[in-house]
Amino acid sequence: MFKIFRNSSRIRVSGDFAVSVFRKYQNKYLKEITNDFNGKCLNVGSHPLEKDKEGKRYEDYFSDGQYHTLDINYSSDEPYHFQLDLSDVKLQFKFDLVLCMSVLEHVKNPFLVADNLSAMLKTGGRLYLTLPFFYPIHKDPEGRYSDYWRFTDDSIAVLFPDLEIEWIHHIPSVIRSVRDRNKYWSEDRTISGYCILLSKPERNGI
């Protein structure tokens, strides 16, 4: 059984960058899972120069690993960037780690994309998934992407039946428990989103 962690809203937000609590936790757990990582990573919905909203490039999390990016809307001459559609992507090799951070809510068919993400993983590979829940609608003003979905932690097992959940972190929201229907409007249920780590197990000795 995987672990569920409910985080406190007491996380320091300071500095020159306007960073949401959700993003702070996303970066915190990314740092943890990439510590001592030396394999091959793919960051989907990202480009080679993208930063983590706290001033650090995502590539800098992978000083010992091989870092790739994938984004249909970004053209680059970088050899490790793929300008491909996540809904119709076929790569010739697989990855030890795939990052899908605040992306799944922007795709039209999350079931198809979830299947593609699973197929990108090596056996034993891991998927780091972050998903907003109680979070503002956020779409690109230039129309490059829309905002379609919000997911619960129960939906992850449905989207990724071939992967095993290692842990789920509930990220706190500014919304608090209210008197009306207190049973439902509790702090555990009004979270801003999730940080989730999944892994691809061996199947039938494969």
List keywords for this structure.
206 residues, alpha/beta, Rossmann fold, eight-stranded mixed sheet, 3 helices, methyltransferase activity, Methyltransferase family protein, transferase, SAM-dependent_MTases_sf, methyltransferase
Structure description:
With 206 residues, the protein is α/β, with parallel strands linked by helices. The protein contains 3 helices and 8 strands, in the order βαββββαβαββ. It has helices at residues 21-34, 110-120, 153-159; strands at residues 3-6, 40-44, 66-70, 81-82, 95-101, 121-132, 164-171, 193-199.
Please specify the SSE layout and strand pairing:
Elements: E1 3-6, H1 21-34, E2 40-44, E3 66-70, E4 81-82, E5 95-101, H2 110-120, E6 121-132, H3 153-159, E7 164-171, E8 193-199
Parallel strand pairs: 1-7, 2-3, 2-5, 3-4, 5-6
Antiparallel strand pairs: 6-8, 7-8
Protein name: Methyltransferase family protein
GO molecular function: methyltransferase activity
Keywords: Methyltransferase, Transferase
Q: How would you name the oligomeric state of the polypeptide chains in this document?
A: single chain
Q: Class, according to the CATH hierarchy? A: Alpha Beta
Main sheet, how many strands, which sense, barrel?
8 strands, mixed
* Strand percent estimate: 15-25%
Shape summary:
globular
**Strand elements, count:** 8
DSSP helical segment count:
3
Indicate the CATH architecture.
3-Layer(aba) Sandwich
Q: What would CATH call the homologous superfamily? A: Vaccinia Virus protein VP39
Number of domains: 1
Instruction: List the strand order in the largest sheet.
Output: 1-7-8-6-5-2-3-4
Percent helix: 10-25%
Please write the string of helix (H) and strand (E) elements: EHEEEEHEHEE
What's the average pLDDT? Answer: 85
The radius of gyration is: 17 Å
Distance between the termini: 22 Å
Low-confidence stretches: 9-14
CATH topology: Rossmann fold
| Alpha-beta classification | alpha/beta
